[in-house]
Amino acid sequence: MSKPVIATASLAGCFGCHMSILDIDERILDLIELVEFNKSPVDDIKSFHKICDIGIIEGGCCNSENIHVLKDFRKNCKLLVSLGECAIMGGLPALRNGIPIQECLNEAYLDGLTVEKGNKIIPNDNELPMILDKVYPCHEVVKIDYFLPGCPPNADLIWDALVSIIKGTPMKLAYETIKYD
Amino acid sequence: MSTKINFTIDGKNCSADKGMFVLGAAQKNGIYIPSLCNIEGLAPRGSCRVCTVKINGKLMVACSTPVAEGMKIENETEELHDLRKQIIELLFVEGNHLCPSCEKSGNCELQALAYRLKIMAPRYPYQFPVREIDASNPKLIKDHNRCILCKRCIRAIQTDDGKNLFAFKQRGCKLTINIEPSTSAAITDEIATKAAKICPVGALLKKEVGFVQPIGHRLYDHLPIGNTASLNIISSREKDTNT
């Protein structure tokens, strides 16, 4: 039987959840035995080569590219896992949700203390993704099958969830591993 | 005539003094019913509905329902479990509870209940309301993003001469907690500490404290809310910090 295929991506996140995946320490050697990685920053594969079994998403959706990547994951992965607070509730990027978008852009590119004088421009190149009105949790954009909370999620929780999904056994969800911070 | 009332919780025979409320009576019999707005020593308010149980087949609130002879109370059932989960999830989505950046995280009762009920993500869409943060008081920060309107601060905190320091302002969905301007100068360090402690979430925070306890040493890091063992650990830790 071929190994289950995993894909991962970071949307509006800080890559802390990916760091937490690496935090499973020496079990990463077991993981390599258990699964094959496809599109992921772990192996730097940029696009899907095949249909994956598990897609792991870190970060919420703050721009049009995030939406595109997330929908692409839904299309190419049999199961989607929301990893971390940003994917589940927008996380710290969602702090901007109460601020009008124009104010955010003005502060970042025009009025901010660190903006260089005489170089004030709001980036508007066609190549740049459009910023969304709000930061959205992933499950409000596509269907998500599993949620692993935490900022970042505990490495033991990630390990337990991955092994359970791969082997089809129930997740243990130990109390100390489920945390929102 | 005996003043003891006999009743059952999930089939277990229990007894309590006449006049006790179901929540306290259950606690006396070693049974934990999750609650959020209730605090020991003050009249119950029944506002959060987290302590909803089934009494003789009807959904009722445990904190404000007195025990009666022969009551058949259901507590640990799938239905009630899900009902409580829904309430907690609603509280999470109707405010802005950003746990990773909250000083109360790890000591927050709302969060602890979510952990206990194993809520991985709320089933309802986030509202992301626009709410005010008021840091005008020299001792307290009032963050409406996290306020769940449990009224604990209003009920529990008064000045020595019996004046309320907190009050409700406006009505309906605009309802907020207000610090009475006429008495706000009376908020001492002691009252600010008490207010921050009485607030189940991080809506009232004492200034100049910050993230004082490291992760791993906080109230609900190792054992769930309602666990008597965790309460013993907490009291021993408090003793340590006092000495």
What percent strand of chain A?
15-25%
Overall geometry of chain A: elongated
Oligomer: heterodimer
Largest sheet of chain B: 5 strands, mixed
The H/E string of chain B reads: EEHEEEHHEEHEEHEH
What structural category do the secondary elements of chain A indicate? alpha/beta
Low-confidence stretches of chain B are 230-243
How many strands appear in the DSSP assignment of chain B?
10
Give the strand content of chain B: 15-25%
Main-sheet strand order of chain B equals 2-1-5-3-4
Structural class of chain B: alpha+beta
**Global mean pLDDT of chain B:** 90
* Count of DSSP H/I helices of chain A: 6
* Average of per-residue pLDDT values of chain A: 94
Percent helix of chain B: 25-40%
Query: What's the Cα radius of gyration of chain B?
Result: 19 Å
How many angstroms separate the termini of chain B? Answer: 48 Å
Strand arrangement in the largest pleated sheet of chain A:
2-1-3-5-7
* Residues in helix, % of chain A: 25-40%
**Termini distance of chain A?**
38 Å
Secondary structure elements and pairings:
The complex is a heterodimer of chains A (181) and B (243).
Chain A: E1 5-10, H1 16-22, H2 27-34, E2 36-37, E3 52-58, E4 61-63, H3 64-76, E5 77-83, H4 85-89, H5 101-111, E6 131-136, E7 146-148, H6 155-167
Parallel strand pairs in A: 1-2, 1-3, 3-5, 5-7
Antiparallel strand pairs in A: 4-6
Chain B: E1 4-9, E2 12-17, H1 22-28, E3 52-55, E4 58-61, E5 72-74, H2 78-94, H3 109-116, E6 133-134, E7 140-143, H4 152-156, E8 166-169, E9 176-179, H5 189-198, E10 204-206, H6 228-242
Provide an overview of this structure.
The complex is a heterodimer of chains A (181) and B (243). Chain A has 181 residues and is α/β, with parallel strands linked by helices. Chain A has six helices and seven strands, in the order βααβββαβααββα. Chain B is α+β, with helices and mostly antiparallel strands. Chain B is built from six helices and ten strands; from the N terminus they run ββαβββααββαββαβα. Chain B has a five-stranded mixed β-sheet, sandwiched between helices. In chain B, strands 6-7-10 form a three-stranded antiparallel β-sheet. In chain B, strands 8-9 form a two-stranded antiparallel ribbon. In chain B, a hairpin with a 6-residue loop joins β8 (166-169) and β9. Chain B is globular, with a radius of gyration of 19 Å. Chain B starts with a strand and ends with a helix. The A-B interface holds A 82, 85, 88-92, 94-95, 97-98, 134, 137, 139-140, 144, 146-149, 151, 173, 175-176, 178-181 and B 92, 96, 98-102, 105-106, 111, 114-115, 118, 120-122, 125-126, 128-131, 215, 221-224.
